[in-house]
Amino acid sequence: xxxxxxxxxxxxxxxxxxxxxxxxxxxxxxxxxxxxxxxxxxxxxxxxxxxxxxxxxxxxxxxxxxxxxxxxxxxxxxxxxxxxxxxxxxxxxxxxxxxxxxxxxxxxxxxxxxxxxxxxxxxxxxxxxxxxxxxxxxxxxxxxxxxxxxxxxxxxxxxxxxxxxxxxxxxxxxxxxxxxxxxxxxxxxxxxxxxxxxxxxxxxxxxxxxxxxxxxxx
Length: 218
Description:
With 218 residues, this protein is mainly α. It is built from 10 helices and no strands. Helix 7 (113-140) crosses helix 8 (151-171), helix 8 (151-171) packs antiparallel against helix 9 and helix 9 (178-195) runs antiparallel to helix 10 (200-212).
């Protein structure tokens, strides 16, 4: 895709986000979205088949932005799987922070679970591919096959962890989201301790943290 086409595609995404926030509702038709934002309908349909497709692409755009930033970091490629996952989470939530109002609206309680989850389907696939790569790398470092773990199963666990952290971040009211940073560090440490079959101490520590921060889920 040319840079011009990328900019046109991003213009549709930006218009969708801005219109959603200004009207406190998702755009109801492609016609109105395009007319109100001086976008030709043929431009819209060149990149998206429907308004629902835009919702999903916005989350994929957030994910791609985070991965693009990580790929510019010269230390990321050779980092351990654990450090890669930590870096991803910290970077991804920085990207989300730039769009927090939209994220809060799109995942708000008045949206049905079907609407909320359907938006994340495309990003979920990309994230699970990333998680599988991390698991494959971790398995390659285990000498005995019985110590290795099935990537598809553990990538699903990584997605559950991601969903947990999303909910935590959405409800986090701490200064500079420091509680989310703690949740990221503790949950990733717990996940990799489980992966290395040494979970008990970290599980207790993570459990204490969740109990202390239980107000976040009220």
